[in-house]
Design a protein that fits this description.
This protein is 22% helix and 0% strand. The protein is an all-alpha fold. α1 (15-21) runs antiparallel to α2 (25-33).
Amino acid sequence: MTDAARTPLRISKDPMYLMLRESCIKEFNVKKAAGDKCDLRGCDLRGLDLRGLDAAGLDFRDCYFRQSDLRGVDLSKANLDGASINACKISGCLFPSELSAPEIELSLLHGTRMRYGVK
């Protein structure tokens, strides 16, 4: 994906997104399990405590997670293409197998956007 095609960083008015910003993770998971949809592409998720989040099937393309707490979150079935995890807490995180360890490390340490299939 080219930089011009990237989703600009935004703070959405989507109720599901606002739940994440307000640390209502359990409520978010209940609504998600009930079939509620949310558009998280390009969202500002900086500094949030997302522990316990059911991330399966979520589209985090181009999201900015700087200094968020992702400990124990299973991201293996989420789309993280173009997302940045600079300075996040990621202990116990499970990332998609398509993301290489160096891609994750570069994003964690330097804030680069993660790219799938890069070795």
